[in-house]
Amino acid sequence: MSARQMAKEQPESFEFNQKYAELAQARIAMYPEGKQASAIVPLLWFAQKQHNNWIPEAALRHIGDMLGMAYIRVLEVVTFYTMFNLSPVGKHFVQFCGTTPCWLNGADKIKQACKDVIGDENTITADGEFSWLEVECLGACVNAPMVQINDDYYEDLDEDNFKQLLTDLKSGKPTKIGTQIDRVNAAPCGGNTSLTEDSLFDGSMVGGYKAVLKQIEKAEADAAKAAALEAAKQAKEAEKAEKAKSEKPKKTTAKKTTSKKASSKKAKKEDK
Q1: Beta carbons within 8 Å of 3's beta carbon, 6+ residues apart
Q2: Phi/psi at 210 (nearest 5 deg)?
Q3: pLDDT over 70 for what percent of the chain?
Q4: What is the DSSP code string of 67-117?
Q5: What CATH number does residue 130 fall under?
Q6: Stretch 208-212: mean pLDDT, rounded?
Q7: Looking at the structure, do residues 123 and 64 belong to the same domain, yes or no?
Q8: Which of 34, 126, 220, 249 is at a distance of 20 to 30 A from 97, taking alpha carbons?
Q9: Domain boundary residue among 179, 200, 223?
Q10: pLDDT at 265 over 70
Q11: Residue 113 and residue 137 in one domain
Q12: Is 153 exposed, middle or buried (0-12, 13-18, 19+ CB in 10 A)?
């Protein structure tokens, strides 16, 4: 990311108005004594909201004084987060996403529309209505291509509906935030393809899961019992086989001993 610099032309002073001063004090009060610096990001956001969507250097000094922070520490924070604008922007600040998912879905046409309608990047239109900036992924990839305008996301754009969106914003007409096509949020186009059964949502299945759990528990118990019986059966058969194996040599030995005795008696009889 390139270095972020403060605007060359700066107002001489900055102070929170009553609304944002109250919000700032409420936010600071959320932190223990000595930890007020933790409120820096919300206070920078309040300053940007008050000052036409960008933060002047005087606001950094004002916030540093409120929080007891060195000015350089405030500068470090404000230049780290790209959500903070360090120079003037248009009334409608368009942040255009050109990363892979948006690009694959036609973001180049949205970028060209920005150039055609607004002008070059980081340039404010003569009437002060628009400026635009290409940014990294804004996290609405499933609805690509998309842009963020001030605080709102506009998704599933094409060249035509994006240009119409800019026209409506300029004329003050209400706009549809979010997806610009026939879908609900990020659901599949044309409607849901799963979890579509009414019984999942009408309450008819409430409590039914208990019966299902009991069936599962019974099946598991029956399976465990059957497995135990099978194991006992196999163990008994193995024991029987082992016993039979150990008894077989004894019988053979006894037979050999008997045969030997008979041969000995026969030999003595012949000697006589």
Answers
A1: 79
A2: -65, -40
A3: 88
A4: HT--HHHHHHHHHH-TTS-SS---SEEEEEE-SHHHHHTTHHHHHHHHHHH
A5: 3.40.30.10
A6: 74
A7: no
A8: 126
A9: 179
A10: no
A11: yes
A12: middle
Contacts of 93 (CB under 8 A, 6+ apart): 53, 85, 130, 131, 132, 133, 149, 150
**Secondary structure (H, E, C), 128-153:** CCEEEEEECCCCCHHHCCCEEECCEE
What pLDDT score does 97 carry?
Answer: 94
User: Rounded to a whole number, what is the distance in angstroms from the first to the last CA of the chain?
Assistant: 120
Taking alpha carbons only, the member of 202, 154, 161, 197 closest to residue 179 is 154
Query: Count of domains in the chain?
Result: 2
pLDDT, position 56: 96
Instruction: Tell me how far CA of residue 98 lies from CA of 107, 112, 138, 156, in angstroms.
Output: 6, 11, 10, 14
Structure tokens at 153: 């996301």
Q: Read off the pLDDT of residues 118-157 as tens digits, 9 standing for 90 and up.
A: 999 999 999 999 999 999 999 999 999 999 999 999 999 9
Nearby residues of 153 by Cβ (< 8 Å), 6 or more positions away: 138, 140, 146, 147, 177, 178
Which structural domain, as residue segments, surrounds residue 54? 18-80
Q: Quick one: tokens of 182?
A: 């026939």
Three-state SS at 202: coil
Among the listed residues 28, 24, 86, the one whose alpha carbon sits nearest the alpha carbon of residue 54: 86
Q: Which two structure tokens, joined as six digits, stand for 264? A: 């000995």
Q: Specify which residues 154 forms β-bridges with.
A: 147, 178
Which helix (H) or strand (E) segment holds residue 241: the answer is helix 208-271
Q: Residue 8 corresponds to which tokens in the numbers above?
A: 């060359």
Q: Could you tell me the pTM of the whole model? A: 0.67
Q: Which residue has the tokens 């005087």?
A: 58
Q: Which helix (H) or strand (E) holds 253?
A: helix 208-271
Instruction: Retrieve residue 160's tokens.
Output: 């035509």
